[in-house]
Amino acid sequence: xxxxxxxxxxxxxxxxxxxxxxxxxxxxxxxxxxxxxxxxxxxxxxxxxxxxxxxxxxxxxxxxxxxxxxxxxxxxxxxxxxxxxxxxxxxxxxxxxxxxxxxxxxxxxxxxxxxxxxxxxxxxxxxxxxxxxxxxxxxxxxxxxxxxxxxxxxxxxxxxxxxxxxxxxxxxxxxxxxxxxxxxxxxxxxxxxxxxxxxxxxxxxxxxxxxxxxxxxxxxxxxxxxxxxxxxxxxxxxxxxxxxxxxxxxxxxxxxxxxxxxxxxxxxxxxxxxxxxxxxxxxxxx
Amino acid sequence: xxxxxxxxxxxxxxxxxxxxxxxxxxxxxxxxxxxxxxxxxxxxxxxxxxxxxxxxxxxxxxxxxxxxxxxxxxxxxxxxxxxxxxxxxxxxxxxxxxxxxxxxxxxxxxxxxxxxxxxxxxxxxxxxxxxxxxxxxxxxxxxxxxxxxxxxxxxxxxxxxxxxxxxxxxxxxxxxxxxxxxxxxxxxxxxxxxxxxxxxxxxxxxxxxxxxxxxxxxxxxxxxxxxxxxxxxxxxxxxxxxxxxxxxxxxxxxxxxxxxxxxxxxxxxxxxxxxxxxxxxxxxxxxxxxxxxxxxxxxxxxxxxxxxxxxxxxxxx
Lengths: 286, 317
Known about the structure:
The complex is a heterodimer. Chain A is 74% helix and 0% strand. By secondary structure, chain A is mainly alpha-helical. Chain A is flat. Chain B has a two-stranded antiparallel ribbon with strand order 1-2. Chain B is mainly alpha-helical. In chain B, α5 runs antiparallel to α12 and α6 packs antiparallel against α10. Chain B has 2 domains: 44 residues, no CATH class; 230 residues, MetI-like (MetI-like fold, Orthogonal Bundle). In chain B, 70% of the residues lie in helices and 1% in strands. Chains A and B meet through α1, α4, α5, α6 and α9 of A and α3, α5, α6, α7 and α8 of B. Chain A: It is a multi-pass membrane protein. Chain A: This is Sugar ABC transporter permease. Chain A: It is found in: Cell membrane. Chain A: Belongs to the binding-protein-dependent transport system permease family.
């Protein structure tokens, strides 16, 4: 920044820099402390959880994981699998349906495009609660309650407008020369979409896939409503019934299974945080 | 921007060739048909899962409907009942309190941390990740369970308080504090708006600061005359987004209060009460009236936000 810094300024700026880092680190520790404490508590015996606020585990006892895993009527991986099936189909559905719509909005000229685009944006603000009652009525008439269909089929019909918007923003930023060159070579829209735009949109697709997975994995409201049969329960619904059933007598086991439920999100966060933060930033602009 | 302008500059000889231009950026009935083909999934989803349900819930809001019998027309009775329903009033109060306290706290934290991180801090991406992680986790049942323990009678907070010789209450089961634990949980998710603020700060051209430097502006002047005005569109964007989101909070209040919204309805968020009426007692007509009211409240507040924005959001020129 400044080129002619005097000697005194250097030492004050260094101490300011250090104190800033100290502040940022202390704040980060406070932020993460509950998570770290949950992890360390999950490997402590239950009676210690209520006495030990430190995050240093005094002993390594995996009993909570073993007992928690089989505390419900199905082993815990059964619920993880149910969640994973829904999340994977949701990801595939969103990627296909939202990218088709996004291509049309970003690259084609057709009558009513601006109107439809505005309608799509308006649905971004729509609370799910306005839709859930009639959707429930519809799904119960189709006999879809207690199946995965209410959680999967809408994803194949571009119901998550947020991802259309995200992909439109991204595709608009791709150079048009590429489309035009492809057209000169005789490609139609379907080939341009699939052979040119899709491969170039991998960052936007990755962002959409990660967010879809994480939000579906965390989703509780619609899974609670559409999946009442305990054999279909997903991980969050099962966890919640675990808590209400065993109550506060089994915190260690509850913590252990809660952590198991968070592991996939944490893994995807580590693998794809670049896409998550970039995706979040691009939706705010342009 | 004109969509006609493709890659070729208007002056280019290729571009003056109308047939080529039409070939590169075609329009007409055939193009319409292909466009609609691409949009077909979205059209179907829009009609079946969005527009249909919106209209259906408007209709249902004027009926009594329990799924067992066909809906029975009631006129405005559900809305009249809402005016006289003390739990509904309580849930509205709880929700407004929650939104108007938790969103400002979350955004102020987000802005403060973004400003701290902005000016070339070493390890920026590390800090950003640490602060952002809770935003991804906070919506889960796992974290709600954790919160219930942390703020319980023998929870983490009270263990620390005990070290200072203070005996804490059970925060989650105290009517004065239970909602506060949810506000803290929402504040914990400041990372998502912070990431958006950081991206916004990066868009401010450094030349503005250099020019101000030349004019002798200090740090404070630069902050109030450059950073803040240029950041107001982002603040506005985050405000609208987080407010709409906060109105729809459900999972945390549901899990922390065991589905009840207690103690003494102090965490009975509007969506939680809607769930109880719609899917606890299958009072679908009443729940629809509540849903439509929520839609109108969110639309009105968003509209108000946009109106007020003219007074404080700076859009440059």
